[in-house]
Prior knowledge:
This protein has helices at residues 2-6, 16-24, 141-144, 147-174, 190-222, 229-256, 268-278, 287-296; strands at residues 31-44, 47-57, 65-74, 77-78, 88-94, 99-101, 115-125, 129-130. By secondary structure, it is of the alpha+beta class.
Amino acid sequence: MAIAGGYGVFGGYLQKEAALEIYGSDPLVRAAGGLRPSGNAMVVDGGYRVTGRWPLGSGCQHSAWIVGGCRILDGDQPRLAADGTPVTRILHFPAAECEILDTWHSIGLRGTGSHDYAVADVFVPTNRSLSFREPPVEQGPLYALPTIAIFGTLLAAVPLGIARHAIDILVELAGTKLAARSRKLLREDVTMQANLGRAEALLRSGRAFLYGALEEAWQVVSEGSTLNLAQRATLWLASTHAANTAKEATELMFSAGGSASPYVSSGLERCVRDIHAAAQHLTVAPANYQMAGQAFLGSDMRSTPLLFTDNRSTNN
């Protein structure tokens, strides 16, 4: 999801030459990495000298390019914005210049290879850097959407898929497994039936809210308008709600599967592990419920970075 659906949008914030170099040379080229400013980029002629280490580089083992959020340094001092905060940028560097560190020993999503990675004194040309606080180069509606909020909607699709798989596994299991107490097929157990119905309701409602919020946002930007604060918050809320309802649905299916669920062969234990790992991501964390509520109340949200992450939001 991250390298195929999320980071591809970054090309719209790069100058055309750099965007073609990174994203246009091969349709299978991928970029991965972390956005938090865990690196230092010292300004030099023509670009930056970058040193840093980043966690959670999902897809880094399959990618030709790696991105890393960096603090911009003038000499040994951080460059400051007009409001006094440190200036940060996202820089692209060839994967061959990165050291992949074997750190991703996780409860779930083990196949993503979300290892730490590091670079040491790597030169990055200026045109391979971007900031979401600057206008995108591309002007289509895709780039008028708040980039980080869109990443949240894409990420929420992962738990939705995991939950659907868990429901499918349970329905199949119910036709063959005997319930321990009644010695009848699990499909005849009233508690299992209720849990299945509840799981379907949770999954479908979360999915419908996510798709509806994204469709409404797309309509706004397609008409040439800018999302207001409440509309931006709704994208975050829909993403968070979809992920958390999917997690609840998956847990219901694990419980309904009884003694079969903990076995690796069932598939349900992996669904639970994976969905708990996915739902830990910042973009779908439960704290986003409060952030959305504050936005709907008209609170002053200028200090909330998740809602103010690109230039399109600064006038809202």
